[in-house]
Amino acid sequence: MINCKDCEKLCCKDSMMPIEVQLEDLKLIAKEKKLTLDKAFDIYCRIAPFTVQPPSLYRVGIALKNPCAFLGDGCKIYDIRPSTCRLFPENVAADEKRKESMQNRYPCVLDAKVDAKELEKLKNKIEKDKEETDKKIFSSKLFLIELKHYKNESLRLHASMKELENKNMTEQAQVFFVRKMHMLDQIMNSGVAKYIDYKHEKAINMDMRKFVLTNLKNL
Ligand code: SF4
Ligand code: SF4
């Protein structure tokens, strides 16, 4: 049995483990807090990278700011918490490799009882919500390539295409380049990101946070 009461709630404040939010989660938060979608995003969320293919390919998504603003003695929005929060620690407990690598930091993964059917249902819901989020907030699937792994522009472009092709992700994909991952907040959340239009192979400047806010305002 997991005892979250005696835990420091590490899973809610671990900067290495961004808590992804889909449009569906944001709608629930906005309703609960009586805010518009863009305001709820502005207050509680940030744009974050999620690993697709180590070491350099990430997808762009929305995450709760870190540490999570809803964390008090416990979760202040427990009943409507994002689906990603509901996955942990069962999703890790169900994966032997991840369980082994995370059990020291998160001993609760050893106590988690996994209901495989329920876990699958939740994962399918997240995938469906993710499709809606990509379509309505980002307009397409967005990916990031960390530049430090490549020596020059053409190598990067070639590598990004290859990685996306390997994953069958070339449809409507756009690829952003980030010099180093720790610069992402600066670039994505408060500035202009340079991205490569994968299909047309051209570089475009874009204010990512403004782009997301505008799309949310129009929903
Ligand atoms: S799920 Fe695990 S890490 Fe998160 S609050 Fe509960 S015991 Fe702590
Ligand atoms: S929404 Fe609740 S469960 Fe999720 S990270 Fe925040 S405090 Fe933790």
Characteristics of this structure?
19% strand, binds iron/sulfur cluster, alpha+beta, 42% helix, 219 residues
User: Which structural class best describes the helix and strand composition?
Assistant: alpha+beta
Bound molecules: iron/sulfur cluster
Low-pLDDT ranges: none
> What percent of residues are in strands?
15-25%
Our Rg estimate from Cα atoms comes to 18 Å
The counted number of beta strands is: 7
Mean pLDDT: 81
Using the alpha-carbon principal axes, give the shape: globular
Biggest sheet layout? 7 strands, mixed
Tell me the domain tally. Answer: 1
How do you describe this structure in short?
This protein has 219 residues and is α+β, with helices and mostly antiparallel strands. Helix content is 42%, strand content 19%.
Task: Summarize the structure in words.
The protein is an alpha+beta fold. It has one domain (4-217). Helices cover 42% and strands 19% of the residues. It contains ten helices and seven strands. Strands 1, 2, 3, 4, 5, 6 and 7 form a seven-stranded mixed β-sheet that branches. Strand 4 (141-146), helix 8 (153-166) and strand 5 (173-178) form a beta-alpha-beta unit. Helix 1 (23-32) crosses helix 2 (37-44) and helix 2 runs antiparallel to helix 10. The protein is globular. The mean pLDDT is 81. The structure holds iron/sulfur cluster (2 copies). The site of one iron/sulfur cluster (SF4) has 10 residues, from loops.
